[in-house]
Structures are given as C-alpha cells and as structure tokens.
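[Solved] Which block belongs to which protein?

Original post:
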Amino acid sequence: MKVLILFTGIKPGNNNSGFDQGFVIIYCMRLFVLLPRVPYPLEKGDKLRAFYQIKELSKNNEIILCALNSISKLDKQKAFRELQPYCRSINFIDLPWYGILWNLFTAFLKGIPIQSGYFYSCRAKRKVDKLIEEYKPDHVYCQLVRTAEYFIKSDLPKTIDYQDVFSYGLKRRYDKANLLFKPIYKMEYKRLLKYENKVFDCFDNKTIISYPDQKLIDHPQREKIHIIPNGVDHDFFSPMERKKEYDLVFAGNMAYPPNVDAASFLVKDIMPLVWKKKPDATILLAGASPDRRVLALKGNNVVVSGWMDDIRDAYSSARVFIAPMRIGTGLQNKLLEAMSMRIPSITTKLANDALKAEDGKEVLIGNDANSLAKNILNLLNDKKHYSEIADNGYNFVNTEYSWEESTAKLEKIMRT
C-alpha cells in the first residue's frame, strides 16, 4: 500500500506567488511480522528486540503481527494492550505441548533443527497462510531461523533476522556439556549450521545483531548480511537516585544457559577472590525463571531475586554491574541498559566484541576470574575511577545505541 502525503510549501520559488509548493511522498508498507514468541513481557532479548522494532516500524508502516506462543500462562490480554498501539492486526497462535512433541518428532525425521521444529506446525502454517491471504502484505519479516520454515518457500519479499548465530551457540554449549548431552548438542549444531545456510539462500534480506555474529555465519556471502544492532530506551533506562543495597548486580533471564553459566562463574570463581579482600561484598542475581543451579548460589552475600516487575530496580540498587559471559552470542541488552543508567560495568571480551566499548574508559574487561575480580575491587575502592567508567559508559551507549536509528536502517533494507 502506498500513501502520498502532501505538505504545502513555504520556500522561495519562481512561480507568480514567489513560493514553490513542496511535498513529501511516504510509501507505507504493510509488514507481516512473524515471531517465535509473543513480544511481551520483555524478559528475553528476542522479545525486547521485536517489541522495539515493531514500535519504530509502525511509525511509517502497517504492522500485521503474528506471534507463536507455547506459554500456557501468558497474559494475552496484557500483551495485546501493550502491542495494540503499534499493530493493525495482532494474532497469537498457540502451540500446545502435545503438538510440540509431534513437531519435534517430525523435525527429527526431516533433518531440520529441533528448535525450528519446536516452533513449526502444520496447523500454525495454515493460520499463517490464511492471514497472508487476508492482508496481502508487501513484505514479510521473520525473527530468528526458528520461524523461517513458514516462509522458506514463499515468493513474497522477505527478510530474516538471524539475530544470533544459533549454531555457534550450540557449539559452545557442546564444548561444556556432559557426556550425556554431547551427542544431542552435536546433532543440533550440525543441523543448525546447514539450516542457517539454507535460510540465507531463501530470503531476500538477512540481518544480524553484530559484526562478530556476522563472521560466524558459515556462508561464502555472509558479508551481505546487514548489521542491525539493538538499541536502548534511554528515556526508560535513565539514571536513578536510590540507596545502594548491593555491591554487584548481574541481571538477565536466569534460565538461559549462558546466564546460568555466568552467574555460577561469578559466585563460585570470581567472588571468592573478591571476598578475600572485601568479605562483606554483596551480589544481586536478578531475572526471571532462575534455574535450580542459580537458586543454589543463594547465600549470606548472594541474593537471587527471581522475576522483578521493574528491572531498573535491580540495576539502580547496586554500585557495579557485571556480565561475566563465557558462552553465548549476540549483543548483551543487559549491558546497554545498565550503562544507560550510568552504572559502571564490567564484562568479558566475548560480550564486548559485539558492544565495542573501549576497555578501561567506557567499560572494564576481564577474561578470567583473577582479572574480573581485580576490576571489581578497583571500582569498589576507587571513587574517581568509578565515576569515570560510569560517565563514559553512559555517554557511549547514548551516542552509539538507538532503536530509532537501527530500525530506520532495517526499514530501508526492506524497502529496497
């Protein structure tokens, strides 16, 4: 659908009135957005990315949202209310557990990745096809290879958002897995590697969250994948004045394996070195659905909060934010949010490769327990250094990370 918007001009011209009439043409696309999860609440990175991209894309386009849902306790009415201002049509397609079991079995037989099979069903495909027939979109936007199977054979103009490199994430988990799970991870890794290549060749446009992730896609033309970073809602994640109850905070979805690994690494390996110098140092592990391994970390100096209605309370309650990531891919939203709240932050090279902050100026980087513990003690003991890292990190994310700018780039790609 194309819309022509005219603006009367107020500029010098050569006509009889002395002014020319100016106009602007805006082409309004009808976008069909397919997501593997309902993008609310925003406790996961893919949901947060989808929500803000939809919000920005809706300014110039019609959004037909179709989100798959495997969560029985999802508050659909609340999710609908949050998304309704940005979408012409909102459609949630439930994936019941018994259907998922069949989908997994079918995926295993077909040789496609298990996680793609988890989100694909013939029943859901019929509903998606019906929506396509009804709304006749100009462009289809699929988030993650988990949804690619729905449009892999479609002739519609389409864009796939890899976001993260799932195959490489599985490889890292395989390297750390016990003998029982190694064969499963190895099988899924090989399937994902092959499937990511297949998806590349079947979609018109490909996007990903960072340059390091782009380099991990095993395709000879991977440089054609567009880099679309995440942004930060700087109005929401802004500095807050409140009493500091903890020395350190690590936040995120605490059921996500890379976060579970990071939390364990922090409490079991890093903090014993800190406690030798500062025995009263306290930690808050904040985030939804804490895994049993995270819950087991609770102690006199370690608090596990579970779900928080406002994650800003976690960030602002601590003096320092730390993300000691050892596995996983993509850009860490938790770092962007903490830095946007002027919380001095510590992380690893793995996470900073996507962030691209300057070590020692905008963030502190360590790659083992000793160097990370040293960075923690430096910030807790040096007020000047603390303030410099906090201010520089704040200025960095406010300059480099914007949902408006990154989504404008995405929209431009879709229009070409």
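(Second protein starts here: sequence line, then its structure tokens.)
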Amino acid sequence: MRTGEATDAAVAAGCGAAAAQVRRAVADARRIVVKVGSSSLTSVAGGRLDPETLAALVDILATRRLSGQQVVLVSSGAIAAGMGPLGLLQRPGDLATQQAAASVGQGALVAAYQQRFGLHGLTVGQVLLTADDVTRRGHYINARRTLERLLELGIVPIINENDTVATHEIKFGDNDRLAALVADLVGADGLVILTDVDALYDGPPSRPESRRVPFVGSPDELAAIDIGGTGSTVGSGGMVTKVEAAGIAGAAGVPTLLTRLTDAKRALAGHDVGTAFAPAAATQASRKRWLAHATSARGRLVIDDGAVRALVERRTSLLPAGVTDVQGSFFAGEPVDVCDLRGTVIARGLVNYPSAELPTMLGRSTRDLARELGAAYEREVIHRDDLVIL
C-alpha cells in the first residue's frame, strides 16, 4: 500500500471509529430527543396523518421508553394534519391560515399519539412552545422545570411549536431548530432527527454520483458539501435546517443522528445508517449557548473597530463609547446583535438600555454619562456576562 493510500485508510478508520462512538452514545443515551417532520408523518397526498407510519414510530419509541430510556418527542404535523379537514391541497403561506390549520390539526395529532402510546401503557403530555419560551430566561427556566417533572413522572412529552399563537417575529421557523434547543434545554444525551431522506449526501440525493456522508466530525467538514434543498410541500424545513440543528445540539455537547423514519429502529440501536454528527469538543456555558442559539435579535448595535477588538480579543463589556449606530426598536434586557462597521454580526447580547435612550449616549464615556445623567448610567451597554461572540 502506498504512503498516501495508507494515510487515507488511517483517516477513514479514525472517522469510522468516531462515527461508531457517536452512534453508540445515542443508542445508550439515558435521555434522548427525537424529532419527526411533517413529511414523514403524513400521507403521500400530504393532507392527513398516516396512521401506520405514526404507529410504527410510536412502537419504536415506546420500546425505548419501557427499556428505561427517557424519550422526548418533538413532532411536526399539526398544520399538515389540519390541511385535509380544511380542504387545503398545500401548506398555506399566510400566517392566519397556518394557525387555523394548526388549531384543527394539533388535537388530532396528540390524540393519535395518546392512543398509540396508550397501547403500551404510556401517557403523553402535550407541550406547545413559542420562541419566547426559550429566548426569555424566565420562560426558559420554567419550560425546563416542566419538562423535567414530566420525565420524572414517566410521561412522554410531545413537543411542537405553538403555531396557533406564534407570530412571524417569535416563530422558531422550523422544528429542527426547536428540537436542538429542546435537547439542550433538557440536557439530552442524544438527538435523532427523522426525515424523509435517509442521510446527508455530498450532493443532491437525486444524482447517481452523490454519496452518503456517514459522519461529520466538525462544522468545517460541511464547507465542501452542497447541502441545499428546501422543505416538502407540507413541512417548513429542509436539509439546511437539519444540519444547523445538528450544529446547535453539537455546541451543547449533544451528538446527533440524521436519518429517515424507516431507519429509526436501526439508528436507535447504533447501526450504521444516516449521518452521525459529533458534538463539539469544547462547549460554551449554558447561558452563552442560550444567547447564541435560542434568542432572536430585536435590533442591532453598530460598533467601531476599536470596540470590535476589545470584545473579540479581550472579551470586554460593550461600552457606549464604542457604539456608532442603533438600529431597530427594543427594550432594556432584550437580545440585540452587535455588528462591525461593515455590517458583519460579531456578537449577540442582552442590552441594558432601550433603543430610545441609546442615541444620546453614543461615543461617550460612562464617567461623563454618570456625571451628567446620574450613577445609573455608569454601566455597560452590554455586560460581558450577557454577551456571546458569534
């Protein structure tokens, strides 16, 4: 064997061992989050739940739960399940009709889960979340407490976005991201994303030359892969959102498996199916992860180059002297993006002042502000403990 070939073989063997480790970690997980998409749960026509598919999924998860593994199910399908009764042939584009379909479909979805899990002697608990529930710290803690208690009681939580009340401004956008945030929220040992594609491919799966990517060791390995793709006619996500979800979970130290629903049993048993995503070697503190992944910016602060260096290199707090512009409308305590002069987002944090107050403070020292306006203004725009570099 030539030297180059030997090196390639060694690398492949190393990747294979790392992938097997991720798969085994998910198979042996004490607590696991499983996400299933709308396209996997609905009929070919897309407007009604497929009872056989749902039953197959529940039977797999019930077996895991009865073997001692705690299972949290993040399930799409409410809007899709409501489309048939409302006479809709495709997923509605306007928010009001989406909410109407979700209102009709959510009850049918949970009833179907309850009936099937009940055959195994298991009880489900419906948990509907909006982005506010994981972006506002008080809501976040309450959601975690509720889920912990449900799991302690032996309940299988069924989580979905609360589409009936969510607005465009407070929507997750897709349940892939929600599942990754829930995995972090509950301290899961593994995340499994079930879809209608068997794995991540190095090109469009429809092309004969495209090959399955069995293992992703770090986000850098995705640079050469044409992920592309949008959601199905009944779903809202695509492969991009699933890879992003794996990245969010990985930042929390949670290994992720991506595969199709028909391979779920084998995936949960540790077999070589789908794509395994390794967790990050070094993870951020929980609060930093929350700021980076669970929040949606309400506005922007533009800062000068000196402030960029201070934040990125010295990890300081953001002071009013370094802020050059305020964009958007927000209140004190809300998350905002911090951008350089070229518009690149470099950080996100919880701002200490409302947008209405900040313009008069720009470029000024905290000492001058305190002398003119009082001691309450001798504080950072964003404290470093409330700031994460992106």
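Accepted answer:
You had them paired correctly. Confirming on the second one: Residues 1-14, 229-237 have pLDDT under 50 and may be disordered.
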